[in-house]
Amino acid sequence: MKSCSHQLKPASDTKKRLKQINRPPITRFSAFFSSAWGWNPQAICLTLAVFIFTACTTTEAITATAVPPITIPPITETAIVENTAVPNDTPAALEATNGPVEAILIQEPGPGSRLSSPLVVRGEADSTFEQNLVVRLVDADGTQLGLTAVTIAAEMGQRGPFEATLPFTVSGEQQAFIQVFATSPRDGGVTHLNAVGVMLTDGVAAIRPSLPDTTERIRITQPALAANISGGVVQVTGEGVASFEQTLLVELLDEDGTVLASQPVIVNAPDLGQPGAFSAELPYSVATANPGRIVVRDVSPAFGGDIHLASVEVTLSP
What we know:
- By secondary structure, this protein is mainly beta.
- It has two domains: about 75-90 and about 100-215, Immunoglobulin-like (Sandwich), CATH 2.60.40.2550; about 215-318, Immunoglobulin-like (Sandwich).
- It is built from three helices and 16 strands.
- The chain is globular.
- Residues about 1-95 have low confidence and may be disordered.
């Protein structure tokens, strides 16, 4: 018989190997790295424990501070003008109220629109004398660039739409205001006015939407229409929005449109561009009873003209 090449190992070696096999897995793991590379098994285990704890803690932190998804609003079809220096004396839209609707509402163009010639103005207005309105275009210095008359498309005494086309000539771009107003048949004075700041261009036009609010910007609550004023002092109260430093100008005019008295007033509003109450006392002197007009103006600091104007016809008595 051939001799067996494998020698039987002593029983003591066999017991030692069985003892190693029966060790717990972590003990065998430590023994392997200790014998193979000379690493410290206790240090390895400690490092692994720290790593696992850090990973779990980081995951929890990330989950706790997850950023909510960003909601992107839909893009409208309206052309948007770049952020250029455009006169915009019209304050931000007022909060919805139950006040009266703006007597002359400019629906197009909106504030900050870029307009090429000829420009088109659209809106709706309360009834005026013979349903007539005037549309005027002025630059930032107050120079008149264009003027045209337009008729409200409604029966006498009824509110209705209006539309006017106004050509102009500019080179490059130029700041301007569009004023739409009604006049008195008695003296030709302005009885109500609304305006919008725009940019005139010889290039491509871009129309911005009008403000969503349609509430009357200046409302005179006292005196009432056709009131008979006497005693040499007229008390004026109302509600309004001021474009510059919360200030409106209150004036008392005689039958010829001459200013008898004027007084700047501060609008008592919670913040700039918001509606608030105002009041004024205007002294006057007349020898006989005559027609008069109380006017409240929102004057633009940009060109010295009116952004908004409201009035009430009265009788002035001694």
